[in-house]
Amino acid sequence: MREWLPENHLAWFVLTAVEQLDLSAFYAAYRQDANGRPAHDPAMMVALLLYAYSRGQRSSRMIERACVEDIAFRVIAANRCPDHCTIARFRQRHESAIGELFGGVLALCADAGLVRVGVVAIDGTKIHADASHHATRDYEQIAREILADAAETDRLEDEQFGEARGDELPAELSTEQGRRGWLREAKRRLDDQRAQQARPIPARAVGLIGSICLAFGPQLFLQAPLGFLQPLRA
Q: Residue ranges of the alpha helices (H) in 20-83?
C-alpha cells in the first residue's frame, strides 16, 4: 500500500508515531479480559482514531465509512474495516490512555509544523504561542475535548440511527440483482405515468376545457368527430 499515498502524507507520520508509542497497556487490557483477543490490532485502532481525530472526523460511523471509501483511512486501517460499534467501544474502553497518547501526538504534529500549516484539524487558538512545558498539557486538554466531542457525536447518532450506520441502501437495493429488479420496476412505473399523461382528453371534458379557453386564450377547442379535441384558430 506504500504506492497508495505520497511519502509526505500525514497518514505515514501518524503510523510512524504510533510505532514509537508504548501501547503495552492496550494489549494488557485484552490479555486480562476473559473475552480473549481483540477483533482488531490495538495499534491499528489507536492509529485510526488518532488520524481521524487529527483530520477533524469525530463520528465513529463516518470513520467506518472512511475505512471503505478513503484511501488514507484504508492505509491506516491496513485495508480492514472495523464497524462503528467496535470503534466507539474501543474509544470508550481506552479513553484515558488514548487522550494521553493523542496529546503527545498533537504535540509532535505541532513541533513538525503540521498544526501551523493546517494539516492537523484542531483549533489553534487554544494553543499557547510559546514552546514551554505547558504546551504539552495544552495538547492533552485539547485531546480530551476532542474525545468528549467524539463521544457526544456518537451519542447523538446512536439516538438517530440505532445500530445502523445511517447511510445504508434499503435492503432491496443492497445486491446487484435487487438493484436491477428495482430499476426495471421503477422504469416501468415511469413509462406508465408518461403513457397516462399522454392519453387524449375524453369528449366529456370538452365543455369545461372550452370554457377555460374562451376565458383565458384566443384559441378555441371544438369536439372532433372521433371524440378528440382539435384546435380551431380564431
A: 24-31, 42-54, 60-69, 71-76
The whole-model pTM stands at 0.70
Is residue 165 within 8 A of residue 171, CB to CB? The reply is no
According to DSSP, residue 82 is labeled -
157-167 pLDDT, tens digit each = 999 998 888 88
| Residue 231 DSSP label | E
The Cα diameter of the chain in Å comes to 97
**Residue 18 belongs to what H/E stretch?**
helix 10-19
Per the document, the length of the chain is: 234
**If residue 220 lies in a helix (H) or strand (E), which one and from where to where?**
strand 220-223
CB 121 within 8 A of CB 128: no
Rounded Cα–Cα distance for residues 133 and 3 (Å):
38
Q: Which residues pair with 231 in a beta bridge?
A: 221
Give me the residues of the chain with pLDDT under 50, please.
Answer: 117, 123-134, 218-230, 232-234
d(CA 11, CA 77) in angstroms, rounded, equals 10
